[in-house]
Amino acid sequence: MWLRASGFQHFWKGSVVHWFQRYQYISCWACKKPVHDVLCQSCGKVQPAVRDKNYFKVLGQEEKFSLNTVDLQTRFIELQRILHPDRFANCSEEEKSYSADQSAMVNEAYQVLLKPIQRATYLLKVNGVTLDEVKLPQKFLIEMMDLNEQVDTVTDKVKKTLLENIINIQEAAMADLQKSFAEGNNVEASKILAKIKYLDNLINRLK
User: Fold this and answer.
1) Does the pLDDT of residue 165 top 80, yes or no?
2) What are the J domain coordinates in residue numbering (predicted)?
3) Contact predicate 24/6, CB 8 Å
4) Which of 101, 111, 121, 186 is 20 to 30 A from 92 (CA-CA)?
């Protein structure tokens, strides 16, 4: 059973900032004492992972598109160090399983939030928006058809130029995406993200 939590927590005598903020455990599975972190402050046992935990909360990030990836990486490395299964090699099979699950969840969250397209997709999902019903302007679709034809017939001589052109278009769209998220316009952000994914597919084909 879980309870919502807010604010940063500390464990291991406050030496490490705890970034798992969304839930609290009512009691430790091992010693049954109240516990608020992934590690019990009383007995030091790792706690079961919460599979539906918000990835931004997992890595202690604000729920927004614009993230400091250096800070993201720093927190990821620290959490992986704390939760690495090797630290629990001499523990019970149950605790080994918990530490492995926690470590896997941290890694999954990091991989999603590290890359802008995956981060944007996840952020929209968290806010109840998907790309399934996005309708792109006819003008954009025609432009994509033209670019797609260029990619299909490109020669080595102009391939680099075409790639740079599409990357520039995508970078401009990324700036628009960041602006839409900053303004809280998730509907517009979903449309821009759909365009970016089209462009990303073309870029990958040219690489």
Assistant:
1) yes
2) 54-126
3) no
4) 111
